[in-house]
Amino acid sequence: MLLKTIFRVFLANTFAILLLASGGSTPAYAGSVGNPTATPVSSNASAEDPWWKHAVIYEIYPRSFQDSNGDGIGDLNGITARLDYLQGLGVNAIWLTPIYPSPQVDFGYDISNYEAIDPTYGTMADFDRLVAEAKKRNIRVIMDMVMNHTSDQNPWFVESRSSRDNPKRNWYVWRDGKGPGQPPNNWESGFGHSAWAYDAKTQQWYYHHFYPQQPDLNWNNPAVEKAMFNAVRFWLNRGVAGFRLDAITTLFEDPQLRDEKVLPGKNAFGDPNESGALQSILPPMHTVLRALRKVTDSYPGQRVLIGETYMSAQDLPTMYGKNDDELQLPMDLRVGFINKLDVAKFRKRISEAENDMHGNQPLFVFDNHDQIRSWNRYGDGIHDAAIARIVATMLLTTRSTALMYYGEELGMVTTPPKTRAEVQDPIGKIGWPKEKGRDGERTPMQWTPGKDAGFSTAAKTWLPVAPDYKLVNVQVESAQPDSLYFWYKKLIAMRHNNPALYGGDNIMLNTSDPNVLSYLRKNPEAGPSVLVAMNFTAQPRKISFDLKAQGITGTHARTLLQNGGVAEHVSLHHVKLPPFAVFIGEVQ
Ligand code: GLC
Ligand code: CA
């Protein structure tokens, strides 16, 4: 069973039901990117490894990262100005959410021209400079590619809607209604209400999985693939390292347009819950992905395809393709959106990412521009700072490639709009007050305790700066050795430099303990393995490890990094973990 995905609401119930139903695993940035100098060798790592296998990828929401020209909106020159910061943090690649010309109804996910830059963000020259400056710092640039839909202002759609016999009519999904005022079927948009919009001029309906201003392309038409792949080549030729494929599971719909199954209850938009199975994950998607992978593979430099794949443990492995010929990194959103510090769930899903992906590389994510920030989702209001360190540890010490979101390293929180009038994200207007939209996790990056948090010099920024910016910002946290910022920075450096964390197997430990999540990153060489243990409770815990079964005779561990007051050198038979403590130690 599959349920319709609607972002924030979807988090709370839909995805949970989906998972239930499906039965549902050298010097850091400087040396190892692209041209590894001292790549540790292991069963999970080799000198030939593609760069993305060990990467930390940092998602930037360009509107909110750094404004360089004082209009209150972030831009490309702003990002370029902050590359030193990103290099210092240790990230290997940045993913930019869409920067193409767009009416900005969905803040760039409604593209009106796939081969240009929106003037709000800068020029093509600014873009080329960003890519070149990033390259100097061994940082790759990944673009967001929106293939499912365009803006209704895209000339393709303007033509398509102009008449029934326009040559581009069949580029989009047009159908007759069931009767006057009645859409072709009961399908709902992920952003609320019917997925069909009526066009009075040509008296037909067009399908939109998202906003009505985002008509779905018709992927059964080869001309669509051709146009989209041309856009892909355009950016590959400019040196981008790959793409994050937006809403990739929604490319195809049931050709017979059968009604979705209606389920009990209503969603946050007040519409009946529906299965959604006929509107996503349809098999022809795989044919497109294989063709796309051929395009990216025809370029040198290991270009990568990342997928926005909210999927079950059963469906996710199919996204890699049968012969590693589709996506290299479909996102595993099952681990990062458990939304509760539940040891059993994390153990199960991390194991699934290890064991059920046919040896492919997982990509874990805890924060993004669509979901409430992890600080709020996992925090208990008392131990939030410690819990944020647990989240960072899970992201950066498992074998998975890591995808983080700007400000996650500072502990930025979600700050939802207080009134409907303030809302920028249309789903917040459609769903108010239950669904407040995604503005809250898109607030400006917090750089300094100064004006506009150092994000801008404007009198008014496009979204307000979060109220905690005086304490939570780069400047303040870089002066505090025990800040969350340094926690991320240290973890990233360790992940790149420690052979066990870089390429060791990931073995779950003490698999019946309901309080402590622990795993071993087994060193593939003679050197020490690394033990990671995290207390998920507010009570102190004592735990004993016996690693003989893992072929390890060491009985002690030396701290590499800890939070919460764990001893520096511990006996593996009595590891004492204070409330919400993290212990990362080298086994000796
Ligand atoms: C993706 C994006 C989201 C956007 C939607 C429609 O899920 O992450 O922000 O609104 O697709 O393009
Ligand atoms: Ca600007």
General description of the model:
The chain is an alpha/beta fold and 588 residues long. It has 3 domains: 51-150 and 225-494, Glycosidases (TIM Barrel); 155-207, Oligo-1,6-glucosidase, Domain 2 (Oligo-1,6-glucosidase, domain 2, Alpha-Beta Complex); 505-587, Golgi alpha-mannosidase II (Immunoglobulin-like, Sandwich), CATH 2.60.40. It has helices at residues 7-21, 28-32, 76-81, 83-89, 124-136, 155-160, 222-237, 284-297, 333-336, 343-355, 374-378, 384-397, 426-431, 474-477, 484-497, 499-503; strands spanning 56-60, 93-96, 140-145, 174-175, 196-199, 204-207, 242-245, 262-266, 272-274, 304-307, 329-330, 363-365, 401-405, 505-508, 516-522, 530-535, 541-543, 556-563, 569-571, 575-577, 582-587. Strand 18 (556-563) and strand 19 form a beta hairpin. The termini are far apart. Bound molecules: alpha-D-glucopyranose and calcium ion. Calcium ion binds next to loops. Alpha-D-glucopyranose (GLC) is lined by residues 106, 109, 146, 210, 246-247, 308, 369-370.
